[in-house]
Predict the structure of Acyl-coenzyme A oxidase.
Amino acid sequence: MAGVDYLADERNKAEFDVNEMKIVWAGSRHAFELSDRISRLVASDPAFRKDNRPMLSRKELFKNTLRKTAHAWKRINELRLTEEEANKLRFYVDEPAFADLHWGMFVPAIKGQGTDEQHQKWLPLAYKMQIIGCYAQTELGHGSNVQGLETTATFDPQTDEFIIHSPTLTSSKWWPGGLGKVSTHAVVYARLITDGKDHGVHGFIVQLRSLDDHSPLPGIIVGDIGMKFGNGAYNTMDNGVLRFDHVRIPRNQMLMRVSQVTREGKYKQSNVPRQLVYGTMVYVRQVIVSDASYALSRAVCIATRYSCVRRQFGSQNGGAETQVIDYKTQQNRLFPLLASAYAFRFVSEWLKWLYTDVMQRLQANDFSTLPEAHACTAGLKSLTTSATADGIEECRKLCGGHGYLCSSGLPELFAVYVPACTYEGDNTVLLLQVARFLMKTVSQLGSGKKPVGTISYMEQAEHLMKCRCEVQRAEDWLKPSVILEVFEARATRMSVACAQNLSKFANPEEGFSELLADLVEAAIAHCQLIVVSKFIEKLRQDIPGKGVKQVLGMLCNIYALHILHKNLGDFVSTGCITSKQASLANEQLRSLYSQVRPNAVALVDSFNYTDHFLGSVLGRYDGNVYPNLYEEAWKDPLNDSVVPDGYHEYIRPILKQQLRTARL
Amino acid sequence: MAGVDYLADERNKAEFDVNEMKIVWAGSRHAFELSDRISRLVASDPAFRKDNRPMLSRKELFKNTLRKTAHAWKRINELRLTEEEANKLRFYVDEPAFADLHWGMFVPAIKGQGTDEQHQKWLPLAYKMQIIGCYAQTELGHGSNVQGLETTATFDPQTDEFIIHSPTLTSSKWWPGGLGKVSTHAVVYARLITDGKDHGVHGFIVQLRSLDDHSPLPGIIVGDIGMKFGNGAYNTMDNGVLRFDHVRIPRNQMLMRVSQVTREGKYKQSNVPRQLVYGTMVYVRQVIVSDASYALSRAVCIATRYSCVRRQFGSQNGGAETQVIDYKTQQNRLFPLLASAYAFRFVSEWLKWLYTDVMQRLQANDFSTLPEAHACTAGLKSLTTSATADGIEECRKLCGGHGYLCSSGLPELFAVYVPACTYEGDNTVLLLQVARFLMKTVSQLGSGKKPVGTISYMEQAEHLMKCRCEVQRAEDWLKPSVILEVFEARATRMSVACAQNLSKFANPEEGFSELLADLVEAAIAHCQLIVVSKFIEKLRQDIPGKGVKQVLGMLCNIYALHILHKNLGDFVSTGCITSKQASLANEQLRSLYSQVRPNAVALVDSFNYTDHFLGSVLGRYDGNVYPNLYEEAWKDPLNDSVVPDGYHEYIRPILKQQLRTARL
């Protein structure tokens, strides 16, 4: 039966050109070809096998990751891969490892915060991996509140050194990936103290381990912080703990691009704008939003294919049962997630553009769009990662009981993904930053300061506060202008309502604290509007390929109308739509589900994921699920012997009523 | 510092009698004392240690579970524990094991479906565990649709035997707990075939393994289905796969209480009402709802205590930072879950009553309340398990980054809990059963057939369709009668709207399929009303103890108003409340959060969980989190050596630029 495609019927139903959709998903023909080539390279290399991951003990798992990382680095060098290709390779190897932090955080921190001399000294070493670095910011007692970090870096003018020290247990660095067992160096964030004065948190390059024998340097205690959520998953990473006992580093290892300490111990600011750090933040968050679309699309791909394979109930006259994807309950949970994967993909592409725009403006000392760009990236990071974490688990449940097996791939995908809701800004804390920005924008309405970018809709606040939705028939809900207006009206009205409630408090900060929950909801409304509007913008572009634009249009409407339904209270209670219009939206949604249905498998095929990358028996391209699920079971170590280890000590004495005398 | 209580300040703030609340939570003084005694017994026995569970390999983990199970059974016999005490002991050992299925499914199946002679033969063996049994129903290809099972039991009149056979790969039994490695016997569900005629699915007692050496009997292939979600978690259980190749069993091993096959191969029904099986179903689901309250309360206990320990932001003049529990965003996520834990506890107590009521009626051949009891337990199983699964993950996120560590206890709690959303009825499938019942009830309104029990509110459908909520001030939302009426009105209006939409379809089944998503929402509205109304009923009882009833009243209002807020679209779009009233509800909710705040730690102390049972460094009773988190980290196997295994092969060659020649 090798080579039989059990999903061929599904693929034949598609009403659009899958190859063109693959290019839309990838972002460009170049991106598609690169991605396709590298993913096959990884999938065909047995060194990157990962199906045994959940069964390995922590030590085996970690050693295995070390091996894969070395192999990947070897291949990158042998094949002379570009940076873009190397990144894709690490992406498709699909196993968190110290190298992610070295390339993703350590190198960028030096690049962004180091001086030219520091670049010349450290970057060549880092580029060749002659040193391996991590990013040591968070502490046992402080994560979200970076300004509360306790580690100190005290300047000693006698020796021209900084003394790095962990004054308390809670000041132990805690969580940095790659720190626990591998990194030779770290960018350590510590309170800079000169002459008894605290200048706040700054970054320092600190060597942690000997380059000769890898042992920790004097004064340094370092180790792994222990097991994390899930089988395999993030346990391939050596997230670490680190304590300093008066460790001395030369003065020139403080990252001095923005501020300096002189030989005399004087603290100075350079004329480099501090706002540059926001550029990095926009970049990192764009990557996170992009990763959200990849993670969610993997889960959706698995759940969609298996929902076509799986049949349950509805057999008539002994015929085949109904494919579970044909149930409206399944569609109502699955298709909005499929639409979300595409929506997040497009908004992350737009964020890429935003990043270049922000960087160009920063170079030109134009900081005017920065608050808006900052709020928008913070909000989108929060929105997409929360939706993706929930969405993966929903996809797992959509696979029924079998989704609970590691061989479905979904448990590990969930476990490895969820920290994205917490790292690089806790999702709730980020939404409050968006809310502050919204309140500021509302307070400036009519002041002559024009709202820009994603918040520019507030310019029409007056209209949006009183406009009435014109929908009279279900089809009216297909008009982008109608959808945009109700989303803009809802976001505006929720922000304005919060602002009005805030104004009732004598102390604004007290009011803000009291109304936090409402403010979070207003922020979410704003962010959902951004995603919807960027999807609509995408559809205004020229998109070639038979049926491609049409089916993307369906997904855009599904995304918007599903969000509307899930947050109906917002829309109806602010008077943006009537309950009659809400039920027309529901009617339209059902009709859209029927339209998307024949395209479902082709829409997930368009992600172009190899079976290796998906890592799921349920999501196999060929749909040949059950024989493989059955085969997979026998690989469990428990099946090494027919009679289990422990039978003689613990089962037989029960059966033979000999427990009283058994040694347990 | 041993013995210091870092949460003492929190405990001193409580405004109610914690000891009395413990009794309310447990259900009675007897239940409290039993629970307290058994939980301490387990916690103090080093054989039941579980903190190392996430680090064990599958084989070590499983062997360890066998040891604990044998030890538990030994202690149960030594201490001559009652059945109630033995159940509690297994509960507090807190490790899924084959014995759960033996006692929870195998024994009850024989009791419920076996004849008197079968009881006499099999139960004594099972009670002494001279045989160990499991419950083999689900197959690789069929879970939800029990009537679609493929395994056959064909009567052979020649030999007076049944031939049990697995005709296809998808007919392999798949998932039964205890099957994979331990059970000697199983109740196997198979299609009964006599003389070529298929009589549907029936239960059969089948021996699987030799009682001499534990090897599978001829014709039987049996093994474990492999790793499942999470570290430790359900991997302690040997969920199994089982195939039969024409295995013969004597005729008297068909469970014959309800239907029989005679020596001649004639199929007969006895006069025992088939409805008796519903009694068992009500019982099992009551246990599941009760377990939901325990699982959710554990997560809430951990998150509440750690939210008091953890401080972030808000330091003024160098003082302590703000306890995260004081943020309204934290309260808005945490307190509704605290309220839900209590709400589920009380509704499960009521379900216990419902079970005895149903059983008494069945004995008296009164089947009138059965459809309502069935719908109500199906719905509550679905509602509480979904809310609990989501709630545990929310609690994990409420603990920030540290919730991702296994030592927080939350990852394992989530992973071990989530299958409850799928087993004993997939939660969506169950809600559709509720929806069918609701549509039937609506169709019978005015027909003279009076709705009973939890659906009796529909008697006032006429009033509920047009009533207007009287709330004018935030305090009005504290009135139970107001809350009940809006929940009843919402549930009625959603059901009636579905019924009206259904009536537009020529083919009712087609309409039902098309409107599945709306029907699910109507069912949820009905179930949420049940939980709210049972909480309110509980508060009408006499509850002794200073402040106990008052603080429970706050929780009841939080539960109801939070549900109202989360489902605002339902309430507003059906005209049950106005948007003005919605914002008054929000205002009241904020005020309730402030009132509950000082009682938060005492409310989770009232669960009376030992640190052993909680299994969480973050949730420790004494709040001494950070030093213990730090200690815990060093126990990871990766920290056995300072330089990790793999350094010489895979790290050093990178650093020394010797990868080209390295053997990877």
Observations:
- Chain B touches chain A through 138 residues (CB under 8 Å).
- Chain B has a mean pLDDT of 96.
